[in-house]
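Consider the following input, taken from an annotated entry for YggT family protein (Lactovum miscens).
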Amino acid sequence: MIIYYILNFVSIVIDVYTYVLLIYAFLSWLPSVNQSFIGRFIRKIVDPYLSLFDKIPTRFGIFDFKVFIGMIVLLIIKRFLFIIF
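Applying the prediction step yields:
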């Protein structure tokens, strides 16, 4: 029973972090908002996770798919946890 609550909490945390990654991606299009307090705060939260993907070639032309790959990895981890338990 307690494992259900733990998995539910982890699922919510992964969902919230996925939304933060999505906001980070949108903020990269708006330089003035990206330099604000909110932008710097989100960057402090997201950059350590996205730095895990620095060695993977995620840039194709002018597009960087690091955020997209980070979101996919989080969703795979979430599915894997629910499959195991």
